[in-house]
TrEMBL record, chain A:
<dbReference type="InterPro" id="IPR045621">
    <property type="entry name" value="BPD_transp_1_N"/>
</dbReference>
<dbReference type="Pfam" id="PF19300">
    <property type="entry name" value="BPD_transp_1_N"/>
</dbReference>
<keyword id="KW-0813">Transport</keyword>
<dbReference type="InterPro" id="IPR000515">
    <property type="entry name" value="MetI-like"/>
</dbReference>
<keyword id="KW-1133">Transmembrane helix</keyword>
<feature type="transmembrane region" description="Helical">
    <location>
        <begin position="245"/>
        <end position="271"/>
    </location>
</feature>
<keyword id="KW-1003">Cell membrane</keyword>
<comment type="similarity">
    <text>Belongs to the binding-protein-dependent transport system permease family.</text>
</comment>
<feature type="transmembrane region" description="Helical">
    <location>
        <begin position="148"/>
        <end position="176"/>
    </location>
</feature>
From TrEMBL, chain B:
<feature type="signal peptide">
    <location>
        <begin position="1"/>
        <end position="33"/>
    </location>
</feature>
<comment type="similarity">
    <text>Belongs to the bacterial solute-binding protein 5 family.</text>
</comment>
<feature type="domain" description="Solute-binding protein family 5">
    <location>
        <begin position="92"/>
        <end position="458"/>
    </location>
</feature>
<dbReference type="InterPro" id="IPR039424">
    <property type="entry name" value="SBP_5"/>
</dbReference>
<dbReference type="InterPro" id="IPR030678">
    <property type="entry name" value="Peptide/Ni-bd"/>
</dbReference>
<dbReference type="Pfam" id="PF00496">
    <property type="entry name" value="SBP_bac_5"/>
</dbReference>
<dbReference type="InterPro" id="IPR000914">
    <property type="entry name" value="SBP_5_dom"/>
</dbReference>
<keyword id="KW-0813">Transport</keyword>
<protein>
    <submittedName>
        <fullName>ABC transporter substrate-binding protein</fullName>
    </submittedName>
</protein>
Length: 328, 540
């Protein structure tokens, strides 16, 4: 690169982009909150019945409960109330648990974050190298074995995998605990390993296939053919190809991180882990609106954050993007 | 007082799989009856137990039975909190916090509290605490799940240093039971309630009671830990602590037991009973659990307002086959709404069964007659849906068998499994004309279920002054035999009008490790101070 005469403010455009993106995210969160509110409102089930249970009830009691949770207010008024409170940072009290939502989520978040982080880590450290290896040995026995393994990971439903994992690794070969979150610290880590592995298998399979496809595409590209024709050593050629393939790999890894969130519900239920996934499922069924809203927004914000980080990573990975930034 | 079946996460069983199971079971010529519990002779070693691990099939969200009133909530609270009275192994009302009581007239109850009654923090129980707890229990906002059962409460007053006087608005034979922990009263400390602003039973506030165990830790979706206390008026229990783990997935629960992690497992699914029984060092015990399963008809939804239609459907239920073949004996064909056990004060078991079968008109299984009755009614060719809760797979199997029979007599009924919350919302919603009623009686009172299903505010849209009068009259009678006779009249009315079609009385399957025994095991064990009934055992 030749030195330029007019150097723009470094990163000025980047900062502007990020601010715009964050503003966009806030608008999306607002829309999601309204959508969630509406869907939960329309979903089958009745909060009053959930609170009363299957039992006789007097009309007075029903009226008292409806008044207590303001179920007779118009739909938009209820949404407005929730929104105004949320903007003040007050996400309300869980109807099912009778505790402040922030407290409830705060108590469960660490476990779910640990589960997701471990699963993601397992998936990345195994799937990316395997994908690269498999692409490099395209068509070999190794490639076929890895592809078969990923097909298994893709097609096995996670609840079946979870039950299989418990049968094999905690009963047949009694290495891991069968269920629960342990008593904190290393014990919890030990308890979360097996569920994280189960969760990692499904997403690792997707990541592996995407990595393989991306590396294969790069190895077959004109740039690589030209590089080889110029007599550049094969090791360097591979390096160039990998670097180019990193962009789709990082993008798919970011997408996959957002997929994990659905998988946690099943894995947490089977392994009896008190995390956000189980909480969300129960809250939706119970129509515990404050909890559903808070978790949905938290997840949406996390996904938006991951997406922004993935986009920013292009700056580091792709010289063309950097050049465009500078040329602004 | 009722308790809804516990919410547990979805167990997705395809309708096809259920149908296959149902057909396979019906096809078994012999059918497999409930295997008798292995004959294990247990000896009380007299030793202390460090910790008893209990597995629950679903999580509790709140430990206060007024806030969440599932059967498992009742079970857990039963060994932590007490009412003024309790029920013994036969269901008889016995002293708890009150050591005695007098009834100067038929609506007044004067309770003498135990002078040594103390909360788990060591504070003495004052009559004011009792009155306060009773008022909270009767308040629909503070205790949505149980307030209905104190609708007949007129007043509660402190009338002495250790005396509380409670009055009911009308003479009521069920009133005393409603003042027990199986009903609506779990006595807590007023100061504790106010300190937590009424948000009791959460993971941060826990519970305050007078029972043999106090809650030391509670994490929804994970566990509850109970520690024994020396403040209880009874004997110090052998088990130092009880840890209840919430394991929603049935396979995981079984795996935990196979690893040796479970001492007691509540509500073992009947299709897994054999697997549990096969675990070395464990035994499986089934016990009548005072639950009722039947069909209910919403008479506000045509054509279910036609008694011929309801009768035809009742005649299409093969109760004997369902109980013996589909439930493998873990259930008893019901001849009425009230269970034989609930009539214990008037009749012994066999006598109660005979009386119910003879005194209450039966709609015996007869597809020919059902088809003839249905012919020409609005229900002929009707397409409708019946839902059942995901927490009751056995109900799903029965539903398939019933739907099959109804299709034969000319109705098109589809069966759908739904989350228990969705199922609750369908009960008496004015849209579902036919549905399942699944009800766990906690008090074992003969009127508990029938007054809900036939009396005022019933979910069937059945309006009957006669039924309301019968319940009032029955509850005004103190003699068990006279009261049973009145309630039999109510059952007759239910059967003649086919307001509900009883199907079976349930049994709960509980798995125990042979290192733990239970004294006086009965349908009432787990709604009493069960922690104190556990003992260290050795199998002979």
């Amino acid at each position: 690169m030749s030195p330029r005469t007019r150097r723009p403010e470094r990163g000025g455009r980047t900062a502007r982009t990020v601010i715009l993106r964050i503003a966009g995210v806030l608008v999306i969160l607002l829309l999601i909150s309204f959508l969630t509110f509406t869907l939960l409102y329309l979903a089958p089930g009745d909060l009053v019945k959930n609170l009363l249970g299957n039992r006789p009830s007097s009309p007075d009691a029903i009226a008292a409960i409806r008044a207590q949770y303001r179920l007779d207010d118009p739909f938009l008024v209820r949404y407005g109330d929730w929104l105004l409170s949320a903007l003040r940072g007050d996400f309300g009290v869980s109807i099912r648990l009778q505790q402040p939502v922030t407290e409830v989520i705060g108590a469960r978040l660490p476990l779910t974050v640990l589960l997701i982080a471990l699963a993601f880590l397992f998936a990345v450290v195994t799937a990316v190298p395997l994908g690269i290896w498999s692409a490099a040995r395209n068509g070999s026995a190794i490639d076929r074995a890895v592809s078969a393994a990923s097909l298994f990971g893709l097609s096995a439903p996670s609840f079946a995998l979870a039950i299989l994992a418990i049968s094999v690794f905690s009963i047949l070969i009694p290495v891991f605990p069968a269920y629960g979150a342990g008593d904190g610290g290393l014990d919890t880590l030990w308890h979360v390993l097996l569920p994280a592995l189960v969760l990692a298998l499904g997403i690792g399979a997707i990541l592996m296939r995407m990595t393989r496809a991306a590396v294969l595409r790069e190895l077959e590209s004109d740039a690589i053919t030209f590089a080889r024709a110029r007599g550049i050593p094969e090791r360097r050629v591979r390096g160039i190809a990998l670097r180019a393939a990193l962009i789709p790999i990082v993008t798919s890894a970011g997408l996959i991180l957002t997929f994990i969130i659905g998988g946690t519900i099943i894995v947490e239920t089977v392994f009896a882990l008190p995390g956000i996934g189980q909480l969300l499922e129960e809250a939706v069924l119970f129509k515990d609106l404050p909890v559903v809203q808070a978790i949905t927004l938290l997840v949406a914000a996390a996904i938006a954050g991951i997406t922004i980080l993935v986009d920013l990573s292009y700056l580091a990975l792709d010289p063309r993007v950097r050049a465009r930034e500078r040329a602004a | 007082m009722q308790a809804t079946p516990q919410r547990t996460p979805l167990r997705r069983i395809g309708a096809a799989a259920l149908l296959t199971a149902a057909l396979a079971l019906v096809g078994c010529a012999g059918g497999s009856a409930a295997p008798p519990a292995e004959d294990v002779e247990l000896v009380d070693t007299g030793a202390e137990i460090e910790e008893v691990t209990v597995a629950f099939p679903g999580s509790l969200a709140n430990l206060y039975i007024g806030q969440e009133s599932g059967i498992l909530n009742y079970n857990l609270a039963a060994t932590v909190q007490e009412g003024l009275v309790a029920q013994d192994a036969e269901g008889k009302v016995v002293p708890a916090l009150a050591e005695s009581w007098e009834t100067p007239d038929e609506t007044t109850y004067v309770f003498a509290l135990r002078e040594d009654a103390a909360f788990q923090n060591g504070d003495p129980v004052t009559p004011q605490d009792v009155v306060f707890s009773l008022e909270r229990a009767a308040d629909a906002e503070a205790s949505p799940g149980i307030s209905y059962y104190l609708a007949n409460l007129a007043s509660a007053e402190v009338t002495g240093e250790h005396e509380v006087t409670v009055t009911s608005t009308t003479p009521d034979a069920t009133f005393l039971t409603s003042l027990s922990n199986t009903g609506a009263l779990v006595v807590t400390q007023q100061a504790f309630w106010e300190e937590h602003d009424g948000a009791v039973g959460t993971s941060s506030s826990l519970l305050m009671g007078t029972g043999p165990y106090r809650v030391t830790e509670f994490q929804p979706d994970s566990h509850v830990t109970l520690e024994r206390v020396d403040t209880w008026w009874g004997e110090l229990p052998p088990a130092k602590s009880i840890r209840v783990n919430f394991i929603p997935d049935a396979s995981t629960r079984l795996a935990a037991a196979q690893k040796g992690d479970v001492d007691i497992a509540f509500n073992v699914p009947i299709n897994q009973a054999e697997d549990w029984g096969a675990i070395a060092g464990m035994r499986v015990e089934s016990m009548n659990d005072l639950s009722y399963v039947g069909l209910l008809f919403d008479q506000r939804v045509p054509p279910f307002d036609d008694v011929d239609v309801r009768t035809a459907i009742a005649q299409s239920i093969d109760r004997a086959a369902i109980a013996e073949k589909l439930l493998r004996g873990y259930g008893e064909a019901a001849t009425a709404i009230m269970t034989p056990e609930s009539l214990a004060a008037a009749y012994d078991g066999d006598e109660a069964r005979r009386v119910l079968a003879e005194e209450v008109p039966q709609h015996d299984f007869d597809l020919e007659s059902a088809r003839a009755l249905l012919a020409g009614t609005e229900a002929e060719g009707l397409s409708t849906e019946i839902t059942y809760p995901n927490t009751g797979p056995q109900i799903g199997i029965a539903a398939q068998a019933i739907a099959e029979n109804l299709n034969e007599i000319g109705m098109d009924v589809s069966v759908r499994e739904v989350p228990i919350e969705e199922w609750l919302a369908t009960i008496g919603d004015g849209e579902h004309g036919i549905g399942f009623m699944w009800y766990f009686s906690t008090t074992g009172d003969p009127a508990e279920v029938s007054s809900y299903l036939v009396g005022p505010d019933n979910p069937n849209g059945f309006e009957s002054e006669e039924a309301a009068a019968l319940i009032t009259e029955a509850n005004a009678l103190s003699d068990p035999a006279e009261r049973a006779a009145k309630l039999l009249e109510l059952e007759r009315l239910n059967a003649e009008q086919v307001v509900n079609a009883p199907i079976w009385w349930g049994k709960s399957v509980t798995a125990f490790s042979n290192t733990v025994g239970v004294h006086d095991y009965s349908p009432f064990t787990f709604t009493g101070a069960w922690g104190a009934q556990l003992f260290a055992a050795e199998a002979e």
